[in-house]
Design goal:
Shape of chain B: globular
Strand content of chain B: 25-35%
CATH architecture of the largest domain in chain B: 3-Layer(aba) Sandwich
Oligomer: heterodimer
Distance between the termini of chain B: 32 Å
Largest sheet of chain B: 6 strands, mixed
Helix content of chain B: 25-40%
Radius of gyration of chain A: 30 Å
Strand order of the largest sheet of chain B: 6-7-8-3-9-10
Shape of chain A: elongated
Structural class of chain A: alpha+beta
Order of helices and strands of chain A: HHHHEEHEEHHEHEEEHHEEHEHHHHH
CATH superfamily of the largest domain in chain B: P-loop containing nucleotide triphosphate hydrolases
Radius of gyration of chain B: 18 Å
Bound molecules: adenosine-5'-diphosphate, magnesium ion
CATH class of the largest domain in chain B: Alpha Beta
Structural class of chain B: alpha/beta
Order of helices and strands of chain B: EEEHEEHEHHHEHEEEH
Number of strands of chain A: 11
Number of helices of chain B: 7
Distance between the termini of chain A: 51 Å
Strand order of the largest sheet of chain A: 6-7-5-8-4-3-10-1-11
């Protein structure tokens, strides 16, 4: 009887790469190499994780705004940075193609933690309850509560340093909380999410905003949220808005608004520190892989010289070292990824800031690991050239 | 008949300028297909240097050296690499790869022959190891083989590609006299069966009888050619 060769037997009929034989022969060295790479990976993952957490948190609010075009002060570098006069919003509403133009306030208020009486601060989102501007259903369905005097909706994902507000509210406790010197009460909750720079958000009405910050501040908008007529050309409307409104106001698409926020926080010293940490992790990885490959090549120099003497070209042997690097990178990445996943969830629990493993970050670290291997191999193979076949005799 | 090895007025020196030290002087030597030639001479007389030139491991500096029809004076790196794969080397030290089994070490030489299938390589490597009496050690690593066994694996690696020329530099130096004798007889038998040419460097008087011709070297010169019957006193 004759059976066709199964794909598995066929696979076993491919020559085992010499790189793998060399690596697996020295178990301890392999283990050291893999732990080194995993360590470097964890370092990089943590830095990128912090970074991603920070940025995703910072764009939460701009991303949850429900509009097509946004008006902000031309000097504004991030949401809430600068304001413009409210009457300009009415002028914008008159521009052809603009269906609605709604006010948005985004300010910081002092906050006394009712549990320990410590003063901290909270970020206030304010809007006209008749003109919702956010795409968070839990907010939009509770705007009637917000209309009441000195009432607010509280973000359940706020940091614990604001107090156990959400739990107390769920338990039916109705404690007054001191916000910007006024006693306010929570009469609803929603989930938005905090970040490293914002402890938490409360949603209030424009009237309560006026009570907190005064009449002068209530005429100063942090953003105008515009919806366009169906079929209107956004770019054309933006151009028309720029023409109609004073130069101090700029009109942005939703993507541009989010990009503005991202680019501002990317320039934060913290962001630069994370970049620096990432580079450090990368360098640590290169040094470790280089050490391993170098001592591997060095220990086997006479073997490589022998291979040259029996007809292997320099190129074929260089390939062996690069294969070793690639194998180390792939094998070292896996435990690195797993450990990072564990540390991410630990961090999320500790800080309340969602640190998620994003596919993009995973791919980025994986490619960095490969580059790390190739770079180290490129330095280590210089040693290989010194393997002189004439020394074999 | 075209000689397998043909050197004319071959000179070689190490070092440059005033430090230059001549090691080979006016070497003229022709070795014909099927010959077993033994090269003897005191240490430092230039035997290894001559072998490494013949094997394409060093560049020829002066004179003519033709191996298997290829002129090595001015040969490119690529031509040298190509030539090396056509020659069987046996080194003084076995130079096996520690991480590979006996069979995998032997296959390393066969891997360069892209036309062979995986199964052909297995068959040839195993057959060669059986021929050197190591059929029962195919999957052993060098660490678990004796000195003689390692040298026999090295011989299997050199012969498995069926080279027309074998260059061996003191292949028995690391072996006791009995395994040394066995190794040499093995080479002799395989050479006879396959009709290949052997140039063997040795200090070992007890193996001189396998040679068709014995060449003596002193201070970089070939001194005399002897008949083995005369040499073995
Ligand atoms: N790579 C080298 N560089 C400089 N001198 C060398 C080198 N290899 C060998 N020599 C010198 O060349 C001479 C011949 O060496 P070698 O060919 O190894 O002799 P043998 O194999 O007969 O003992 C010796 O004097 C040795 O010191
Ligand atoms: Mg020598």
């Amino acid at each position: 009887m004759v059976f066709g060769k199964s794909p598995l037997t066929r696979l076993s009929r491919i020559e085992k790469p010499l790189a793998w034989s060399q690596l697996s022969h020295q178990r301890v060295r392999l283990l050291v190499a893999l732990s080194g790479i995993s360590f470097a990976n964890i370092l990089i993952f943590m830095q990128l994780g912090f970074r991603a957490a920070m940025f995703s948190g910072t764009t939460n609010v701009p991303a949850s705004l429900d509009g097509d075009v946004f008006l902000v002060n031309e000097k504004s570098q991030f949401l809430g940075n600068e304001t413009f006069d409210k009457p300009q919003l009415y002028r914008a509403a008159a521009v052809p193609g603009v269906a609605t133009a709604r006010p948005f306030y985004y300010n910081t208020a002092s906050w006394v933690n009712p549990d320990n009486r410590k003063t901290t601060n909270v970020t206030v989102i304010a809007m006209n309850p008749a003109q919702p501007v956010m795409s968070i259903p839990a907010i939009n369905t509770q705007l009637a509560q917000v209309e009441q005097t000195d009432r607010m909706l509280f973000d359940t994902k706020s940091l614990p340093s604001l107090g156990a507000i959400a739990t107390e509210f769920a338990a039916g406790q109705d404690l007054p909380i001191e916000v910007q010197g006024r006693k306010m009460r929570v009469n609803g909750t929603y989930a938005l999410g905090s970040n490293i720079f914002k402890r938490g958000h409360v949603v209030i009405s424009d009237v309560n905003y006026l009570r907190l910050f005064g009449a002068a501040q209530a005429t100063q908008l942090h953003a105008g949220v515009l919806k366009l007529d169906p079929g209107a050309d956004a770019q054309a409307v933006i151009a028309e808005l720029e023409r109609t409104l004073p130069e101090t106001i700029t009109a942005l698409s939703h993507d541009e608004l989010i990009a503005l926020e991202e680019s501002y926080w990317a320039k934060e010293p913290a962001g630069i520190i994370f970049d620096f940490g990432t580079i450090m992790g990368f360098v640590v990885g290169v040094v470790i892989v280089y050490q391993v490959l170098y001592s591997d090549v060095n220990d086997h120099l006479s073997e490589y010289a022998t291979l040259k003497a029996i007809g292997y070209s320099d190129g074929q042997l260089l390939l062996v070292v690069f294969q070793e690097a690639a194998i180390l990178a792939v094998l070292g990445f896996m435990p690195g990824l797993l450990s990072a996943l564990g540390l991410y969830s630990l961090l999320s629990n500790l800080t309340g800031v969602a640190v998620l493993m994003r596919l993009g970050v995973g791919l980025q670290v994986f490619s960095m690991t490969l580059v790390m291997g190739v770079l180290s191999a490129a330095i280590a193979v210089r040693k290989l050239r010194s393997a002189d076949p004439a020394d074999v005799f | 008949m075209e000689p397998v090895v043909n050197s004319q007025n071959l000179h070689h020196a190490f070092g440059k300028g005033s430090l230059s030290k001549p090691v080979l002087l006016d070497i003229n030597l022709a070795i014909y297909p099927g010959e077993i030639v033994i090269l003897t001479g005191p240490s430092g007389s230039g035997k290894t240097t001559l072998l490494s030139l013949m094997g394409g491991l060093r560049s020829v500096q002066q004179g003519s050296l033709k191996i298997l029809g290829q002129e090595l004076l001015g040969a490119s790196k690529k031509q040298l690499v190509e030539l090396r794969s056509q020659i069987g080397y046996i080194f003084q030290a076995h130079n096996l790869l520690d991480c590979l089994t006996a069979q995998e070490n032997v296959r390393m030489a066969l891997r360069l022959q892209k036309s062979l299938s995986y199964d052909d390589r297995t068959a040839q490597a195993t057959a060669m190891l059986e021929a050197v009496g190591l059929g029962h050690r195919v999957n052993y690593r060098p660490d678990n083989l004796s000195g003689g066994q390692k040298q026999r694996v090295a011989i299997a690696r050199a012969l498995v590609t069926q080279p027309q020329l074998i260059l061996a530099d003191e292949p028995t130096a690391a072996l006791d006299s009995q395994s040394g004798r066995e190794v040499v007889e093995l080479m002799q038998r395989l050479a006879r069966d396959r009709g290949c040419t052997i140039l063997l460097v040795t200090h070992d008087n007890r193996i001189l009888d396998i040679a068709h011709r014995i060449i003596h070297m002193e201070d970089g010169r070939l001194m005399r050619t002897e008949n083995p019957a005369v040499a073995v006193i």
